[in-house]
Amino acid sequence: MSISQRTIKLILATCLACLVASFLDLSSAVSAGIIALLSLSDTRRSTLKLAHNRFFSMILALTIGVLAFQLLGFHLWSLGLYLALYIPIAYKMGLEIGITPSSVLVGHLLVQESISLTLLINEFLLFAIGTGFALLVNLYMPSREEEISHYYTLVEEKLKNILLRFNYYLSRGDGRNKAQLVDELDSLLKEALRLVYLDHSNHLFHQTDYHIHYFEMRQSQSRILRNMAQQINTCQLAASETLILAQLFSKIAGQLSQTNPASSLLDDIERFLEVFRNRSLPKTREEFETRATLLQLLREAKIFIQVKVDFYQKYRK
Which burial class, exposed, middle or buried, applies to 12 when counting CB atoms under 10 A from its CB (0-12, 13-18, 19+)? Predict the structure, then answer.
């Protein structure tokens, strides 16, 4: 939620709550606006959770407040007894979020020097109006689907660039690779997940975890790519297997789309593994080390593809 959107919502919730409380001729009507101000959060789900916790916090506060005023009368030390009992209980029950607004309502009882049913109903209505308008203005949340779709494009493009860079290094026999693109991919995925988690919190019903699982799947692939980037650094010697693997990376780069099952790539990898097994044994230490690294890269590539295939199988419908 942008600052301008949040500001507008706070103004609407606060002013409307005060107006309705005044229209109903409630005592301390402005408190309804303050409660609305305190109850508005960045997402629908967090606002609803705030309202839930503060409701039970209010019930607890008013109950303890009434008991304290009945025992000691309407004095400052009665308020002290209320706070001494209410605050630790609220923390123990996980209701500390409601300490401030609930204590304001209890303060009204002290100012009015009354614990009558009428005044208690007044306090309950102030709370209901304030939290109600906070929930009401948060019914509107701008759609983030366009932003999320943009991250899909950015992530897949970055993955493609990394795999084509691997192709370049292996084709040229150049192992200089600082995994800068992988770092950029990780940053991009963190931004994307922050956005989809926020969007997920704005859907109270008909939720789907597709976006979250998609970017988490790409995070798993990113970790594999980082391992592969480190291994490619050791491939200083040109070999025929190197060119085979370079072609595989180029082929994978062309099948990264979320709608592409990529299962055929697993068959390609199995064929490449068979080619590796049938090759003549390396003649030098350098050839042996390069062959071992390339074989490990091929196995990592298989895991990379399997992560994507598993995701596609889960969400293919």
Answer: middle
Q: How far is CA 196 from CA 137, 157, 192, 201, 212, in A?
A: 21, 19, 6, 9, 6
Domain spans of the chain, in order of start: 3-137, 145-315
List, for residues 113-137, the tens digit of each pLDDT value: 888 899 899 989 998 898 888 878 7
Q: What Å distances lie between residue 262 and 11, 267, 269, CA to CA?
A: 51, 10, 12
Closest CA to 223 of 273, 132, 281, 162: 162
**Amino acid at the residue 305:** I
Residue 157 · residue 164 · CB < 8 Å: no
Query: What token pair was written down for 164?
Result: 């084509």
Amino acid at 264: S
Tokens of 214: 């998609």
Alpha helical stretches, state H, 173-254: 180-200, 210-232, 240-253
Rounded to the nearest 10°, the torsion over CA 28, 29, 31, 32 is 150
Beta-carbon neighbour count of residue 259 at 10 Å?
7
Spatial CB neighbours of 282, under 8 Å, sequence gap ≥ 6: 288, 290, 291
The domain over range 145-315 is classified in CATH as 3.90.226.10: no
Cβ(51)–Cβ(39) under 8 Å?
yes
Report the alpha-carbon distance of residue 87 to residue 102 in Å, rounded.
11
pLDDT in tens, 144-202: 777 888 888 899 899 988 888 888 887 776 556 567 888 889 999 999 888 887 776 66
The token duo for 244 is 């085979």
- For 218, counting Cβ atoms within 10 Å of its Cβ (0-12 exposed, 13-18 middle, 19+ buried), the class is buried
